[in-house]
Design a protein that fits this description.
- It contains 18 helices and 18 strands.
- The relative contact order is 0.09.
- The protein is α/β, with parallel strands linked by helices.
Length: 512
Amino acid sequence: MKEEMISVKKMKALELNAEYFGVSRLQLMENAGRAVAEEVSARFDAGKSRVAVFCGLGGNGGDGFVAARHLLTKGFEITVVIAGNPKKISDAAALQNWNALESLRDYLTIHEVSDSSNIPRVKAEVIIDALLGIGLKGKVRPPVLQLIRTINRVKGFRLAVDVPSGIDADTGEILGEAVKANLTVTFHKIKTGMRNAHEYTGEIVVRDIGIPPQVESLAGPGDVVLTKRKRTREAHKGDFGRLLIVGGSEEFSGAPALAAMAALRTGVDLVYVAAPEKTAYSISAMSPNLITVKLEGEQLNPDNVSQIEEHIEKCDAVIIGPGLGTSSETEKAVKTLIKRVNSLKRPVLLDADGLKAYSKAKHPFKAPAVLTPHAGEYRLLTGKTPPKEPNKKALEVQSTAARLNAVILLKGSVDVISDGEHVKLNYTGNPGMTVGGTGDVLSGVVGAFLAQRVDPFEAAVAGAFVNGAAGDFAVDKLGYHIVPTDLLEFIPKVLDNPMSHIEVHKTVGRKR
């Protein structure tokens, strides 16, 4: 059986999603600390063993505070060494557990280490390392560096909480110096770098901390956080992506414009809309934010391909489909464009009429691809109507995604997203979003993530959550009288604080 592992980013995203679905960070910390205490009490006699718990000021330290409290109740003699001034604990759950522990000062020993000059001499049969945890990326700095050395010098059984302090949990790299543990109690799953650091982790025990396995298959705020890229003061135009949208026709000029505006709200730097000439002028008139590429003819046709290719080459991702129309000439052009995108390895999103054109060929993709069908378009792609039962629908979408080598985001009252291996369900959104154009907004959000080099599956999951959450905020404000442009206002709100959707989720979500 293949050992399951998880990266630091995905573990943090999962913890955030667990909180969104009702399992608080405080609960997770309590379960983690109790698991550590149980491992100690199962291996050592409280009457004969002293325990020293070395704690940092973050979440890992909070796990240590909880472990110390539980071990105290089990009768162990406890010493707590905290790396810094407790007033600097910024993690709310860790602070709450510190306050609980500090109230027991008369029953245990606490040392506050402000710098490397006042590290106490510790004698203990068990030493718990709860200094840094999985978030460390840079070199270990004083006084934690000296505390790691102290832990390694103490003669006793060393237990690391989640990962030995000083190890990059993703790679296993030793970041200066690291605790050499006899036992590492890690939570939920083994972190990807731990198997590269055997001599530091010692025995590894994986403990459950109360995250239901089902949460891993649900889209949440953590998935939005996975897409975030830091913006430095030195950033230049284009650093956060260039997106090309091929869409629009005489009848549908709004669809590509909505996708473009949604992409801009999602944070992409530049969006080009390639549309038939008259349509392009209409789109330009809608907003000064939109850049249009004016194509000859009344509809997309094969003669336009060479002009579009120039922009494919300079863009980071391409959306094909919003409002294109379904003429035979347009379908020929779309098929050629898909081949060109494949050859250039550009991420592509197919929606609406782009999907209809592709459904007549259905060649597996060689470039990263996201397809966003509703049930009717899915039927065109596969010849099947998606099952209504969620588990069966998930398996069906997963199978299709694997066959086409693409991420499929099947839109519905519950969105189903799969890359052929993983499957996630998204529950944001509401019946008010049946209004035309909300799917174009979704395409713009996902396309923006693709242009920012987000993994296609992660882009589709986050995009589904953001689009639905924006729709929920709009309905909460306006009732079931929204238009697709209303969603644009709320995209930044969801991106900046995805957890803010919790309250709306409780109200609008119940109206579904």
